[in-house]
Amino acid sequence: MLQKTNTANLADFAHDDHPESHSVFGFWIYLMTDLVLFASLFAAFGCFAHQFAGGPTGKDLFDIPGVALETGVLLLSSITYGFAMLGAHQRKRGAVLLWLAVTFVLGAMFITFELREFSHLIAEGNGPQRSAFLSAFFTLVSTHGLHVFFGLVWMAVMMLQVLRRPLGEQEIRRLTCLSLFWHFLDIVWICVFSFVYLGSVV
């Protein structure tokens, strides 16, 4: 009887120490589906990378120093989000809000740079309808940009939640899922910068 009681207590302790949650695992599954989406878009770009229809090439269009700055801003936002997660695990609500705000500003800067690039290309007559190359480029880069935009909306919602309630396990799980999403977008953008921009000018 005593052995059964001890076994039950150990099981309860393990359960309390590692509360069961499927939200993070489920979010990993979502990221895998998103990975398939981006892989398809990269494959499409690879097929149309040299279909210029007599129009300009990536070497003619892309401002690599500007895109490098854009890339640096997004990568820096990944670091600042890491600081926000450190604050969350330490239950420091002020630090979480501060670093989420910094991350939000950096993400908004990235979107601004991207929209400026798109408007410049379209103003010069190099929109997605100009060639298969540009269609694939706009589709891939704008899909990533939409993901960043929705990440910013999610981040704003999380900032409101952290502001209104104490940092509990549920809030930390949500911040963790957003962290996975944000870092995933950084990895995708590194591939975009390397494969689309640098690959088109080399």
UniProtKB/TrEMBL annotation:
Q: Which GO terms describe its cellular component?
A: plasma membrane
Q: Which GO terms describe its biological process?
A: aerobic electron transport chain
Kindly give the membrane topology term recorded for this protein.
Answer: Multi-pass membrane protein
Give GO terms: molecular function aspect only: cytochrome bo3 ubiquinol oxidase activity; cytochrome-c oxidase activity
Q: Which domain of life is it from?
A: Bacteria
Q: Which residues form the Heme-copper oxidase subunit III family profile domain?
A: 1-201
Q: Which residues form a coiled coil?
A: none
Keywords from the UniProt entry: Cell membrane, Electron transport, Membrane, Oxidoreductase, Transmembrane, Transmembrane helix, Transport
Q: What is its main location?
A: membrane
Compartments reported by the entry: Cell membrane
Similarity section: Belongs to the cytochrome c oxidase subunit 3 family.
- Fill in the subunit field for this protein: Heterooctamer of two A chains, two B chains, two C chains and two D chains.
Q: What does this protein do?
A: Cytochrome bo(3) ubiquinol terminal oxidase is the component of the aerobic respiratory chain of E.coli that predominates when cells are grown at high aeration. Has proton pump activity across the membrane in addition to electron transfer, pumping 2 protons/electron.
The protein in question is named Cytochrome bo(3) ubiquinol oxidase subunit 3
Gene (UniProt): cyoC
